[in-house]
Amino acid sequence: MPLVDMTDMLHHAYCHGYAVGAFGVAGWDILEGVIEAAEHLRAPIILSLSKSYPGAGGIESLAKAVIEMGQRATIPVSFQVEVDNDPQLAEGAITTGCGGVVFNASSRLLPENVALTKKVVNLAAPSGVLVVGQLGHLESVQPDDAAESAAGCPTSPLEAKHYVERSGVGCLAVSVSRMNGGGSKHDFPRLSKINQAVGIPLAIHGSAGFTDDQFRRLIRSGAAKVNYCEPLFEVAARRIRENTLAPEGGYAGLVEGVREAICIEAERCIRIWGCGGRAAEILTQCRTWTPAVPGLDRKPAETEASRAFNDTGNAKVLFARSRP
Which of 69, 174, 252, 320 is the most exposed place for a label (fewest CB within 10 A)? Predict the structure, then answer.
């Protein structure tokens, strides 16, 4: 089964009120466990790669494995690469064949963030790669919706609109952090205002520790993608720590059950985020994704879904026709 265009996948989720999990892949057991969960629940998934993941190093070989596994899967698969605020790293990520680049220049002041992100959008455009940009975070630190969302400040709806319109990103990431002891309070109404201001799929980064109801509130407020990395890695680490208590077993004993534990956790998330059972819709309504070849523009396969998309020129308009 071909990979699926990430732009189409996220707009389908955005227009139908669910979120797709972008699961961090830091090894083969995690990759297999996530795909097994998505196959079982017939859910679309995004596989996420980053050099910052433990043991990742160079991600080129892992990207090839992700593409191969995605093409062999019977459910819709996209994959993204996460990079920091260096456009050159983003340019290298595009050559891996990914469908999306998560570019995080949110530590910079707004004008520089816009300029850097726009550069990445221009680099990604010939290959049709979606750029996910990031601006500020969701914690309620300042009451003023118009306050500047520079590094360390909450995302402002007005500045989110400015950032999206001038950078050209196809998805806006908002960082959130679940603070123990009630240190920060998530401003869900602010997220709803951001959603109304930008009108594109939102992504949630820093998703550890949320309750089921909090995830559902995020999705109702426009979140169509949830990055789920550290919690998944902790599931794998916990299983390995448990295995170290066994008197013997070697390496095979240490990693025994990791894939199964990942599968259980991914299934739990898929149920919460509402993307289970959506595979058939995605496969029939979204374009297939052809990984980019360096030096060549991407030429998507011409399918019924892609013809419909090209007629409208806008995935949001296409999928909004069937919004409940």
Answer: 252
Nearest CA among 315, 282, 322, 323 for reference residue 130: 315
Report CA-CA distances (Å) from 126 to 8, 74, 89, 103, 292: 17, 28, 17, 17, 9
Query: Quick one: angle between helices 110-124 and 157-167, nearest 10?
Result: 40
In the chain, the domains with their CATH numbers are 3-320 (3.20.20.70)
| pLDDT tens per residue across span 15-46 | 999 999 999 998 889 999 999 999 999 999 99
Tell me the two tokens of residue 88: 């050159």
Q: How many whole angstroms separate alpha carbon 239 and alpha carbon 116?
A: 40
Which one-letter DSSP state was computed for residue 156?
Answer: P
Tokens standing for 121?
Answer: 């959008």
> Which H/E stretch holds residue 261?
helix 258-273
Q: What is the pLDDT of residue 191?
A: 87
The pLDDT assigned to 255 comes to: 84
A 10 A CB-CB count for 151 gives 13
Half-sphere exposure of 127 (CA within 13 A, CB side): 28
Q: What is the C-alpha separation between 206 and 266, in angstroms, rounded?
A: 16
What pTM was estimated for this model as a whole? 0.85
Query: What are the φ/ψ torsions at residue 95 (nearest 5 degrees)?
Result: -70, -10
Report the alpha-carbon distance of residue 145 to residue 228 in Å, rounded.
28
Contact 319, 9 (CB under 8 A): no
pLDDT tens string 172-189: 998 665 433 344 466 788
